[in-house]
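Lab notebook, bench 4. The sequencing result for the construct came back, and we need a structural model before the next group meeting so we can plan mutations. Quick request posted to the team channel:

Model the 3D structure of this chain.
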Amino acid sequence: MKCFQSIPLLLAALVAFSSCAPVQKGQQGDSSAASLVSDVSEPGAASVPEAPAGPLLAGRAPNLKPFPYEQEADPGEVVDQLSQLTGWDLTLTQPPVSKGEGLAVSFAPESSLFAGPPNPQKDEFHVFDAQDLVYSILDSVSASLESVCGVSEVYFTDADGNDLRFEAGGYSFEFFADQPYEVAVPEGAAPAGYIRHTIRFPAYQGGRTEANAKIYDIPPFQLSIDLPESWTVRNPDEELFSIPTTPVEFYEGDTLAGSAGYHVFTIPEGIDEQSEAYYRGIYNQIMLGSRATWDIEYTPVSETQSGVTATCYAGYVPAEETDGQPAEEGDWVRRQAVLSYNSDLLVYIAVAFGEEEIPEEQWQAIAKSVRIEAL
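Done. Here's the predicted structure in C-alpha cell form:
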C-alpha cells in the first residue's frame, strides 16, 4: 500500500506490533412502476424552460463542482459535455424526454453506469467502486440538467421508461420511474476553505482473505469529513490489508497529505467510559504496541451519544533507531492524527496526516467535522 514516505512505515508498524447491497437513496417504500409513455411528449429532444443557463455540476454530492457551460441549453448536449468533462461514457438510449415538470433520462448498455469507469480515470473524477460511480453519474447528470436547462425534476428509467433496476460491482440498484431523483446532500455545509467529503467504508475489497473477511463483511457506513478545498480523496495504488482497514488517501496536488481507514471493535465491558482504559480498549489494535501506537496526547474534541472524536499523534519507532534497546523520546516518529468511534455501528475511523504538520486550527476543524453514519 502506498502511503506517506514515513507513514507507510507507521501503518506497517501498527500492523506488525498489533494483534495481528445496500439500500440506495432512490428506493422509497412500495410504489408501482409508471410507464414513461403516458407522460412524455414526442420522443427525442425535450423542450426546456427558457432560463439563463447555469454551470455544469460534476462530481458527487455534496462535493459537486461547477464548470462553465456556454452551449445552447439542450439536454442532450448537456449530457455530452458532461461526458467529455468527466471521461465517463454517458451514452443514452435516446435524448432526454419530457416527463411531468422535468426530464427522463435512459442510459445505454455501453454507458459507464453499467459498464464501469474508464481506464484510466481522470483524477478529478476518480471513483472508488460501483456505488460511488453510479451516484457520481446520477448526481452529476441530474444536477447539471437542473442547472443548465432549468428543469425542476429528473427521472432515471430503463430503455422502455420503466423502473431502472440493475446490479454492478456487487451492489443492487433500483430507481423508480415515477419518482424524481434526489441528490442527497448531508445537512450543514463545510466552512469557507473546506469541502465536505463523504467516504464509504469498506472503501474496497483489496486485501480481503478468508481470515479477515468478517472485517470486510460489515454493513457499509459513511465517514463525513471536512478537508481543505485543495485536497482530493483517492484510493491507494495498491490495495492491501492493513490496520486501519481499506485506507483511502488525501492528496494536495501530487503530495500525499493524509490517510483514513476504519476498523471494528467490541465495547469494553465493566470499564468507565470516561477512563483511559475504555478508549484504549476500543482502539486496542493500534494502541497497545510498545514501538507503534496512536496513544500519544489523546485529546477528545467532540462527543455524541454514540461516540467520541479525539486528536492524537500516531507514532512508531524505526527499528534501526534503537537496535533492540528501549526507545528514547526523540526516537519516535510522530504524525498528527484523528480518532473517532461509533458504538452503535461498532466501527472506528483513524486518520493520520503527512510529514509536514498542518496548522492547529486546521487539525481541530477537520477533527470536529468527523461524522460516522450508517448507510
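Residues 1-45, 48-52 have pLDDT under 50 and may be disordered.
Will bring this to the meeting.
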